[in-house]
Protein backbone atom coordinates (compact mmCIF):
# COMPACT_ATOMS: atom_id res chain seq x y z
CA UNK A 1 0.00 0.00 0.00
CA UNK A 2 1.25 3.47 -0.89
CA UNK A 3 0.74 5.95 1.92
CA UNK A 4 -0.94 9.16 0.79
CA UNK A 5 0.96 12.41 1.34
CA UNK A 6 -1.54 13.81 3.79
CA UNK A 7 -1.22 15.68 7.08
CA UNK A 8 -0.99 12.44 9.05
CA UNK A 9 1.86 11.20 6.87
CA UNK A 10 3.96 14.31 7.51
CA UNK A 11 2.98 14.54 11.17
CA UNK A 12 4.42 11.04 11.60
CA UNK A 13 7.73 12.45 10.35
CA UNK A 14 7.49 15.27 12.88
CA UNK A 15 6.78 12.69 15.59
CA UNK A 16 9.95 10.82 14.59
CA UNK A 17 11.82 14.05 15.25
CA UNK A 18 10.07 14.39 18.61
CA UNK A 19 11.22 10.86 19.46
CA UNK A 20 14.78 11.83 18.53
CA UNK A 21 14.51 14.74 20.98
CA UNK A 22 13.21 12.34 23.64
CA UNK A 23 16.24 10.04 23.17
CA UNK A 24 18.50 13.04 23.76
CA UNK A 25 16.73 13.99 26.97
CA UNK A 26 15.05 16.98 25.33
CA UNK A 27 11.38 17.86 25.74
CA UNK A 28 9.99 15.83 22.83
CA UNK A 29 8.82 18.29 20.22
CA UNK A 30 9.56 17.69 16.56
CA UNK A 31 8.94 19.50 13.30
CA UNK A 32 9.31 19.07 9.57
CA UNK A 33 8.82 21.57 6.75
CA UNK A 34 7.52 20.46 3.38
CA UNK A 35 7.22 21.94 -0.06
CA UNK A 36 5.19 20.18 -2.77
CA UNK A 37 4.76 17.11 -0.54
CA UNK A 38 8.48 16.80 0.00
CA UNK A 39 10.25 17.16 3.34
CA UNK A 40 12.96 19.81 3.00
CA UNK A 41 13.79 20.38 6.65
CA UNK A 42 13.58 18.60 9.98
CA UNK A 43 14.18 19.76 13.48
CA UNK A 44 13.67 18.87 17.07
CA UNK A 45 13.92 20.65 20.35
CA UNK A 46 17.58 21.18 21.36
CA UNK A 47 17.29 23.67 24.22
CA UNK A 48 19.27 21.50 26.67
CA UNK A 49 21.90 20.32 24.18
CA UNK A 50 22.59 23.85 22.95
CA UNK A 51 21.76 25.53 26.30
CA UNK A 52 19.67 27.90 24.27
CA UNK A 53 16.05 28.73 25.03
CA UNK A 54 15.50 29.63 21.38
CA UNK A 55 16.44 26.15 20.11
CA UNK A 56 12.83 24.99 19.65
CA UNK A 57 12.01 22.43 16.94
CA UNK A 58 10.33 25.04 14.74
CA UNK A 59 13.34 27.39 14.90
CA UNK A 60 15.67 24.56 13.83
CA UNK A 61 13.34 23.63 10.98
CA UNK A 62 12.89 27.25 9.79
CA UNK A 63 16.66 27.75 9.59
CA UNK A 64 17.16 24.42 7.81
CA UNK A 65 14.37 25.14 5.30
CA UNK A 66 15.76 28.59 4.50
CA UNK A 67 19.21 27.10 4.00
CA UNK A 68 17.77 24.44 1.72
CA UNK A 69 15.81 26.95 -0.36
CA UNK A 70 18.49 29.61 -0.36
CA UNK A 71 15.87 32.17 0.57
CA UNK A 72 14.39 33.45 3.80
CA UNK A 73 10.71 33.26 2.87
CA UNK A 74 8.82 30.01 3.31
CA UNK A 75 5.64 31.14 1.60
CA UNK A 76 5.28 27.92 -0.36
CA UNK A 77 5.95 25.70 2.64
CA UNK A 78 3.99 23.86 5.30
CA UNK A 79 5.28 23.32 8.82
CA UNK A 80 4.24 20.18 10.70
CA UNK A 81 4.96 20.42 14.40
CA UNK A 82 3.92 18.03 17.15
CA UNK A 83 2.99 20.80 19.60
CA UNK A 84 1.19 24.09 18.99
CA UNK A 85 3.90 26.74 18.44
CA UNK A 86 4.80 29.11 21.27
CA UNK A 87 4.88 32.91 20.92
CA UNK A 88 8.53 32.98 19.90
CA UNK A 89 8.09 30.38 17.16
CA UNK A 90 4.84 31.95 15.97
CA UNK A 91 6.75 35.23 15.72
CA UNK A 92 9.52 33.59 13.69
CA UNK A 93 6.91 31.91 11.50
CA UNK A 94 5.34 35.32 10.96
CA UNK A 95 8.63 36.61 9.54
CA UNK A 96 9.02 33.51 7.38
CA UNK A 97 5.58 34.13 5.79
CA UNK A 98 4.99 30.37 5.88
CA UNK A 99 1.92 29.25 3.98
CA UNK A 100 0.56 26.73 6.44
CA UNK A 101 1.10 25.47 9.99
CA UNK A 102 -0.23 22.09 11.08
CA UNK A 103 0.27 21.24 14.74
CA UNK A 104 -0.42 18.10 16.76
CA UNK A 105 -1.31 18.74 20.40
CA UNK A 106 -2.62 22.01 21.77
CA UNK A 107 -0.55 23.96 24.28
CA UNK A 108 -3.21 25.79 26.21
CA UNK A 109 -0.78 27.56 28.53
CA UNK A 110 2.09 28.54 26.28
CA UNK A 111 0.77 28.14 22.75
CA UNK A 112 0.23 31.01 20.34
CA UNK A 113 -3.55 30.56 20.09
CA UNK A 114 -4.55 31.41 23.66
CA UNK A 115 -1.81 34.03 23.84
CA UNK A 116 -3.18 35.64 20.68
CA UNK A 117 0.17 35.79 18.94
CA UNK A 118 -0.24 37.25 15.50
CA UNK A 119 0.54 35.02 12.53
CA UNK A 120 1.18 36.32 9.05
CA UNK A 121 -2.14 37.15 7.32
CA UNK A 122 -1.29 34.62 4.59
CA UNK A 123 -0.61 31.80 7.06
CA UNK A 124 -3.24 29.13 7.57
CA UNK A 125 -3.19 27.18 10.83
CA UNK A 126 -4.85 23.92 11.75
CA UNK A 127 -4.24 21.35 14.43
CA UNK A 128 -5.16 18.18 16.20
CA UNK A 129 -3.26 15.90 13.80
CA UNK A 130 -1.96 12.90 15.79
CA UNK A 131 -2.51 15.00 18.92
CA UNK A 132 -2.88 11.90 21.12
CA UNK A 133 0.48 10.53 20.01
CA UNK A 134 2.20 13.88 20.55
CA UNK A 135 0.82 14.39 24.05
CA UNK A 136 1.42 10.76 25.04
CA UNK A 137 5.10 11.23 24.17
CA UNK A 138 5.27 14.43 26.25
CA UNK A 139 3.57 12.76 29.20
CA UNK A 140 5.94 9.79 29.01
CA UNK A 141 8.89 12.19 28.97
CA UNK A 142 7.80 14.04 32.09
CA UNK A 143 6.94 10.82 33.95
CA UNK A 144 10.39 9.38 33.21
CA UNK A 145 12.06 12.65 34.12
CA UNK A 146 10.27 12.73 37.46
CA UNK A 147 11.30 9.16 38.17
CA UNK A 148 14.96 9.98 37.54
CA UNK A 149 15.02 12.86 40.00
ZN1 LIG B 1 8.58 27.61 20.30
Automatic annotation (TrEMBL):
EC number, UniProt record: 3.5.4.33
Enzymatic reactions: adenosine(34) in tRNA + H2O + H(+) = inosine(34) in tRNA + NH4(+)
Active site: 58
Residues that bind Zn(2+): 56, 86, 89
UniProt-recorded name of the protein: tRNA-specific adenosine deaminase
GO molecular-function term, one example from the UniProt record: tRNA-specific adenosine-34 deaminase activity
Cofactor(s) named in the record: Zn(2+)
GO biological process, one term: tRNA wobble adenosine to inosine editing
Domain of life: Bacteria
Amino acid sequence: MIEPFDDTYFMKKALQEAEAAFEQGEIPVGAVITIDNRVIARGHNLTETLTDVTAHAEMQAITAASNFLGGKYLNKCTLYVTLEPCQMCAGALYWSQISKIVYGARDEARGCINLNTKLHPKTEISGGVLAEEASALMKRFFVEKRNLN
